[in-house]
Amino acid sequence: MKGTTTGSDLFTEVNLKKKLGFCESHNWAMKKKLRTVSHFATCACLSEKTQFPTFFRTIPSDQFQADALAKLVKYFGWTWIGTVHSNSDYGNNGMASFLRAAHKEGICVEYSESFNRNDPASKIQQVADVIRRSTAMVVVLFTATGDLKFLLEELTQNPSPPRQWIGSEAWVTDPEVQSFRICAGAIGFAIPQSVIPGFREYIMDLSPAKVAASHLLTKFWEGAFNCKLKKPGLVEKVCDGTEDLQKLQNPYTDTSQLRITNMVYKAVYAIAHAVHNIVCKKINSTVQCDRFIKIEPMQVLDQLKMVNFSRNGYHVSFDNNGDPVAFYELINWQQNRKGDLEFVTVGNYDESLSPGQKFTIKREIRWTDSSTQVPVSICSDSCPPGTRKVLQKGKPICCYDCVPCAEGGISNTSDSSDCLSCHKEFWPNAEKTLCLPKPVEFLSFHEVLGIILTSFSVGGACLTIVTAIVFFHHRYTPIVRANNSELSFLLLFSLTLCFLCSLTFIGRPSDWSCMLRHTAFGITFVLCISCVLGKTIVVLMAFKATLPGSNIAKWFGPTQQRMTVVSFTFVQVLICIIWLVLRPPFSIRNLTTYNEKIILECALGSAIGFWAVLGYIGLLAVFCFVLAVLARKLPDNFNEAKLITFSMLIFCAVWIAFIPAYISSPGKFTVAVEIFAILSSSFGLIFCIFVPKCFIILFRPEKNTKKNVMGKK
Q1: What CA–CA distance (Å, rounded) separates 586 from 597?
Q2: Residue 561: which H helix or E strand, with range?
Q3: Is 163:81 a contact under the CB 8 Å cutoff?
Q4: How much is the pLDDT for 557?
Q5: From 25, 59, 249, 352, which residue has the greatest number of CB atoms within 10 Å?
């Protein structure tokens, strides 16, 4: 049982209480004998046909109401609520159905309290304290009116923070709780109101004689007019027949919001239609009725299952469980101009419609404090895109922290529980809401570093060409002719190639450019070192040739010098050919060095081939350095071995430092380190070997004589 009714429901409610009392204590008897169409019993348990095969009702089951309440809460975005219910069959069963529906909708319940009007005051105060302390703004009340009044009285004495009350149909339209102003803004579902034609006139047409014939009406009459129809006491007023129901203002005479009464109305007509279909048959387009036919209960039961009609604006039919189509009005407690609370229908819920259309709002809802802003009742704020939800330990799923997506992950929706990983060639934007293609990085001619290195490379090549021009212009002078001018010009040519080969390391790598850059670098540098080595040997041989009885000059003449350069260079060419044939360098997209970008670079193909090329250059450089050190103190006035010693010292220092820098430098800086080593060693050679000679040729021509060159210290 739940709530109270208006006076117009008086007779049906008394009858129903008797029936339900019988049902609760005699389930077996009910299962076997009860055949009824209820207007007031809402327990979802009565839909179980194996237990109640002959039970029908015109009021929707609490299961539909629970589903509707859960959808209502979800509709307004409330995911963090509290619940309170009567400790009775109505409250316990109804709340259990609601909690199941709320769980399916993803709604979290902070607390669920129950109480009864017969509980001690401390119990009701405890429930009120839970409401006061809670963080949930919304409270769902699945209670009977008689129970709710005790709770509201307690909350009125010591008000809680503003709460948005969600009511079940048992109390949301009950005038007995309408006076509690803390319920302003409450919303809930109610049985649809209806105006029954002629009903007001019928109940107003009561004479004292008709009233006296009914014990129930007698009690009502005497209570409404404060008089006695029979045997008045000494001080009691006698009902003299002048009492006027038209002037009486109480729930009995108010037929503007007939709700439960309409359920009775539909139940009576459902049975009437069932009986009519048994009694009357259509024969040859004529309806013939047998008023004397014997009607069996099972016939009425079978016809009730097929009832389908509309009455007073409402459709009446029953499903397989004996339940009607659920239709509720959404009621909002709003203050009128006088400041009184009144029930305003602001929407409805129709279970027969498709899922997206069941719940509709027709009027503006006034919330707590008459605000039109929908209250917020959540445990945690919504997580924006770019973050994911992490549940707080020991709390429901609605309580969570928002954690930014990990590196490489995105979430493009709010309240995402997981982040999605971007494809390996994509990377999240700064907000981590979108995967964007990773920028491709390589040492470009257009960036600052590329421009600087290109400038030094071209500048070095130009400087070498200018030096060659100066030497060619003064090719017959002693300082140029000394130490084999042919090797000097070949060295200048190889240095020019060394400067220019660094340009192959700049720009977008391709398979061809990767093969070209390493082979060009290896061959040109070996050619350069071979020339320097040849010049060093020439210095040594020239000194040995001046010794008495020495004929070494004929064993290391120009032809032998050329063959030395060609032989040393050929070995490097052979190493490069083997490298290119077996496992040549190739371009790759490096996705591992940096997570947020792609490095276009050249893979070595064969690390052995690369280090063989470098090792051969290093071997020649060390050999040249050793010979230059040995020849540095020979007694010529212009001993070129000293210059070669310094140049080889710089060369070896640069390439020894290159190895750890090359290994540890990431991305395009690996290429920049290699170019820097090429340019540094090339500039070291040209500055140490040729700049001093150019200085004498251009600025100290008096020293550019054979006597000065061959003179002794």
Answers
A1: 20
A2: helix 558-582
A3: no
A4: 64
A5: 59
β-partners of residue 84 are 113, 141
d(CA 587, CA 412): 35
Map residue 540 onto helix, strand or coil.
helix
Give 689's DSSP letter.
I
56 close to 270: Cβ distance less than 8 angstroms:
yes
The rounded distance, in Å, linking the Cα atoms of 501 and 713 is: 41
**Average pLDDT per consecutive 10 residues, the chain (713 residues; last block may be shorter):** 41 34 32 65 88 91 93 93 94 94 93 94 94 94 94 91 93 90 93 83 79 83 83 73 78 73 89 90 82 86 90 85 92 89 92 87 88 91 92 89 92 90 91 91 89 93 92 82 77 90 89 89 89 78 56 62 85 92 90 86 88 88 82 59 79 82 80 88 87 84 70 49
pTM, two decimals, is: 0.64
Rounded distance, CA 418 to CA 150, Å? Answer: 46
CA dist., res. 272 & res. 269, Å (int): 5
d(CA 482, CA 706) in angstroms, rounded, equals 9
Residue 378 to residue 76: CA distance in whole angstroms? 11
With a CB cutoff of 8 Å and minimum separation 6, the contacts of 38 are 16, 19, 46, 55, 56, 57, 58, 59, 267
Write the single-letter amino acid at 644: I
**DSSP letter for each residue of 54-109:** TEEESSPPHHHHHHHHHHHHHHTT--EEEEEEESSHHHHHHHHHHHHHHHHTT-EE
Q: How does strand 164-167 pair with strand 138-142?
A: parallel
Judge residue 376's burial from the number of C-beta atoms within 10 Å of its C-beta, 0-12 exposed, 13-18 middle, 19 or more buried. Answer: middle
Q: Do 311 and 266 touch, CB atoms closer than 8 A?
A: yes
Which helix or strand (DSSP H or E) is residue 273 part of? Answer: helix 260-279
User: Are the C-beta atoms of 543 and 636 separated by less than 8 Å?
Assistant: yes
Q: CA-to-CA distance for 199 and 203, rounded, in angstroms?
A: 6
The pLDDT value recorded for residue 64 is 93
Contact yes or no for 177/171 (Cβ under 8 A) = yes
Q: Which residues contact 528 (CB under 8 A, 6 or more apart)?
A: 491, 494, 495, 497, 498, 682, 685
Q: How high is the pLDDT of residue 705?
A: 73
Distance separating alpha carbons of residues 422 and 408, to the nearest angstrom: 6
* Nearest Cα to Cα of residue 505 among 450, 460, 555: 450
Give the tokens for residue 506. 């700049």
Q: Can you tell me whether residue 328 is helix, strand or coil? A: strand
CB-CB contact of 37 with 19 (8 Å): no
* Cα 556 versus chain centre, distance: 79
- The pLDDT of residue 32: 37
Among 359, 361, 326, residue whose Cα is nearest residue 347: 361
Buried b (16+ CB within 10 A) or exposed e, 170-182: bbbbbeebeebee
Distance CA 643, CA 623 (A): 15
**Rg of the chain over all Cα atoms, to the nearest angstrom:** 52
Integer Cα distance of 259 and 312 in angstroms: 12
**Which residues have CB under 8 Å from 711's CB, separation 6+?**
637
Q: What gap in Å lies between CA 260 and CA 12, rounded to an integer?
A: 9
Q: Which single residue is written with the structure tokens 């982040």?
A: 419
Residue 348, number of CB atoms within 10 A of its CB = 19
Cα separation of the two ends of the chain:
129
- Beta carbons within 8 Å of 687's beta carbon, 6+ residues apart: 647
Res 148: pLDDT: 94
